[in-house]
Design goal:
This protein has 145 residues and is mainly α. It has one domain (22-138). Helix content is 62%, strand content 3%. It contains six helices and two strands, in the order αααββααα. The chain has helices at residues 2-19, 32-42, 51-58, 83-99, 101-114, 117-138, and strands at residues 66-67, 70-71. It has a two-stranded antiparallel sheet with strand order 1-2. Helix 2 (32-42) crosses helix 4 (83-99), helix 3 packs across helix 6 (117-138) and helix 4 (83-99) packs across helix 5 (101-114).
Length: 145
């Protein structure tokens, strides 16, 4: 019974996603579930005046660690904002890395600098967020090689 309900829910989500006209669908590697999560969590893009605001809303910005004259050399993601958007962007970032050469090269560069998969993936998710912001703000399709 549970599997039948999951199938029905997925079919309904696919029908809803196909009825929506959004440029997020043009990004290679972003499927129905991640695309729908990103689209629904962002909502109206005009609420964000800069891409950094969208990144902060997604919780992908670095947390500040300082006290007096001390500033930490490395920081983690802030984890504030929407956990659903953060999850969908990181999950979609890996699929985009696998399906797009530009993002694949960026991931390899960050992986060679940082030495960890999830650190590099966090940088890719931030870049993907900036790209999605520009696409939604200017209503343009994805065209990176």
């Amino acid at each position: 019974m549970l599997e039948s309900q999951l199938d029905d829910t997925e079919k309904h989500l696919t029908e809803l996603w196909n009825s929506i006209d959004t440029v997020i669908k043009t990004i290679p590697g972003i499927g129905v579930i991640d695309g729908a999560m990103i689209y629904s969590e962002i909502g109206d893009i005009t609420c964000f005046s800069k891409p950094d605001q969208l990144i902060a809303f997604a919780g992908l910005d670095p947390a500040t660690r300082q006290s007096g004259n001390f500033r930490a050399g490395s920081t983690k993601m802030s984890k504030r904002g929407s956990p659903f958007l953060s999850y969908a962007l990181v999950n979609a970032a890996w699929n985009v890395v696998l399906n797009n050469a530009t993002f694949g090269e960026y991931y390899n560069l960050k992986f060679s600098e940082k030495g960890r998969h999830y650190k590099a993936l966090g940088h890719v998710a931030g870049k993907l967020t900036r790209v999605i912001y520009a696409m939604l703000k200017n209503n343009m399709t994805f065209d990176l090689p």
